[in-house]
Amino acid sequence: MHSSLKILSAVLVFISFNGLLNAQDNSIVGRWKTIDDETGEPKSIVSIYERDGKYYGRIDSLFRKPGEDPDPICDKCPEDDPRYKQKTIGMEIIKDMVKDGDEYVDGTILDPKKGKIYNCKLWIEDGKLMVRGYILFLYRTQTWYRVD
């Protein structure tokens, strides 16, 4: 009887630990390598965090090619947006996302290179972050990869 209690305890600990790992894997919070859906090349590292019950994403660093500005500004952002003419590194590009089941919705994402702001939906699929920007029924989806 004593050994079966130990086995049961070990199984419960394993199940609890495994559940914690899966919950972390399903969280969008953390650092993500963004991939350009047109070129397939890495663009940036974005940190996603929770603030006051909503989720936001900030550009931590950029992958730049030789000859590209290493510290660009958002000169194509809308002039009435507070991010206009601000540095891209450190910029909050994901705003006001709300968790709804397994998805994060009702927020926006900014493409600082083009200066366009899109409605946004985020979700985890096979450990990767799926990032969909859309206007009406037109959308594009990028796959971002977790950075340890």
Automatic annotation (TrEMBL):
Q: Which domain of life is it from?
A: Bacteria
| InterPro entries hit by this protein | DUF2147
Any Pfam family matching the protein: DUF2147
Query: So which residues are the signal peptide here?
Result: 1-23
Nucleus keyword on record: no
Query: Does the keyword field hold Signal?
Result: yes
Name all DUF2147 domain ranges. 30-146
Keywords assigned by UniProt, alphabetized: Signal
Which PANTHER family does the record associate with it? BLL5882 PROTEIN (PTHR36919:SF3), BLR1215 PROTEIN (PTHR36919)
What is the designated name of this protein? Answer: DUF2147 domain-containing protein
Q: Which organism is it from?
A: Caldithrix abyssi
Per the UniProt record, the lineage of the source organism begins with:
Bacteria, Pseudomonadati, Calditrichota, Calditrichia, Calditrichales
